[in-house]
């Protein structure tokens, strides 16, 4: 068991544990960053869908196709559709 007391073995074990620890830390940080990015993308997607609905409603009003009862329907329809376009796994 004299090889366990060798400085090369001790430094090798420390090196491997440092690599494993840093790999675990970077992986967890990457996963957190990806989740945050996905949340921001979903929020932006919902905002864009809502704005598209508002623009289409305004266009319909300008063209004289919309009634007062239709106000807000397209925005709600587009905003409610977000996240449903994802592929089912």
Short description:
With 89 residues, this protein is mainly α. The protein has helices spanning 7-63, 73-81.
Q: Kindly state the percentage of residues in helix.
A: over 70%
- DSSP helix count? 2
The unreliable regions are none
Q: What radius of gyration results from the CA coordinates? A: 27 Å
N→C terminal distance = 52 Å
Descriptive account of the structure:
The chain has 89 residues and is mainly alpha-helical. Helix content is 74%, strand content 0%. It has 2 helices and no strands. Helix 1 (7-63) runs antiparallel to helix 2 (73-81).
What keyword list fits this structure?
single chain; 89 residues; mainly alpha; rod-shaped
